[in-house]
Amino acid sequence: MQTAGPPLTRWLSGGVYLVTDDTLPDDEIINTVEQALRGGVRCVQLRDKRRPMREVYRLAARLRALTSRMGAGLIINDRIDLTLAVAADGVHIGQDDMPPRDARRLVGPQRVLGVSADSPERARRAVAEGADYLGVGHVFGSISKEKPDAPIGVQGLSEVCATARVPVVAIGAITTENAAEAIDGGASSVAVVSSVSRAEDPEATARELSSIVRSAYERRKSAQRRFRPEAPEPDRAGSALETLRNQRPLIHLITNYVVMNDTATATRLLGALPVMSEAEEEVGEMARQARALLLNTGTPVLSRVRAMRRAAESAARAGVPVVLDPVGCGATGFRVELNQNLARGGSPAVIRGNAAEIAALVGRRFDIRGVEDTGEDNESYHKARLGLARAAATHLGCVVAVSGPVDVVSDGRATVPRTVLVHNGVPLLGAVVGTGCMVSSLIAAFAAVESDPFLAALWGLGVMGVAAERATEEAGEAGARRPLRFKQAVLDHLYVLQPEELSAAVRLEWLDQ
What we know:
Layout: H1 8-12, E1 15-19, H2 26-38, E2 43-46, H3 53-69, E3 73-77, H4 80-85, E4 90-93, H5 100-107, E5 112-117, H6 120-128, E6 133-136, H7 153-163, E7 168-170, H8 179-184, E8 189-192, H9 194-197, H10 202-226, H11 235-247, E9 250-254, H12 260-270, E10 273-275, H13 283-289, E11 292-296, H14 302-318, E12 322-325, H15 333-345, E13 350-354, H16 355-361, E14 368-369, E15 372-373, H17 379-396, E16 399-403, E17 407-411, E18 418-422, H18 435-447, H19 453-475, H20 483-496, H21 499-505, E19 508-511
Parallel strand pairs: 1-2, 1-8, 2-3, 3-4, 4-5, 5-6, 6-7, 7-8, 9-10, 9-11, 11-12, 12-13, 13-16
Antiparallel strand pairs: 14-15, 16-17, 17-18, 18-19
């Protein structure tokens, strides 16, 4: 039975989503779905509004067995009770069904919640209330409804995609002739019904569609990497926090003994659900179920190292974002080799560390003693950290966050890396053991709901800095002499901080390249 968030990224990033045709008999539906899965379809939605529940339940159970065997997702249209009964991966609801917030409460954080939307306003509301993905349309029209609404066209699709922070599935008369247009309009995936279910050869049609969609998706992503994106808007930080608290994603934390309770507490108080699994027998399964994975190498005993590698491999196959915190990298040769192997083989979306750790990771040198960066806080040091972040991000091909008096975040995935300074925080953070590790867990929490890991890193660093600033304001001058009380106050403020307060307080500085 599904116990945590499925690999939504793998299903919907440049994939084809098949909606069953309820005019067909059960055996034909099963045969069509099996052929479609062989042809590359990654996710199936059971939609049947015609027949009695008992008959639909029998079909749902057969589809659950088939999709599980073939490694695909199963979504149930409308029926939460049926979703739970057959242990489907999620449910899709329309605008006339119950509010997404209530649906999320019923299905829990472990299952996917899809919501139909045909406008930016409805899309924003659905995401804020817990939607994991949006079904947007009808784009070109519909032959699955007797009285379809007027199509929104590619322009309407693009307007919704521009505001959505979750994957968008384009729906409505999608065929091999127009699927690429939908992807070019911003969709992550396309939903099809009759173009596959009524095709003479469903497997061949699904394979052709899958190839078209995958090519268009990769072409769009490649084009996006060639152009400098807009500077991140602080308003998105609050919106991401609101989404995180509504969705309550499961975050798999493999962290060190020193900070295990702190990272779990910070993650939970922010609004996500931490799970501290490091048994080799289960980490692979747990990583697949989680919405993000954190690897923290602070206490690198061999059993934990093996667990990290297994979890990272499983997360990569499932499309689950990985955050690497290379604690103490550079202190010993063993730690350098371990973290370099995880950086190369674990496909991290974000790597966060202090300057000494990041430098050691890419073969450079900063002062380090144990796990602490001992560089001096001066202008020369700041310039060196900035150059380091950019070089490391480019070298590693991912997002790199270098923590310090001013945090530096650089994105090495684009042709021209984007770099932003995060000016939140207080000096006392550096005096409290574990605050950096907590930041990494917060980045992982945002990575679960923010499709762009660069933004997830900004929001994780920003929310920690804002909470620290609020804690300092509350404690006054006396608080500077009581670091443990300060730490407790920071955790409290992670819990009480409101989305609009985060948007107003986070301070970002975009740097020209």
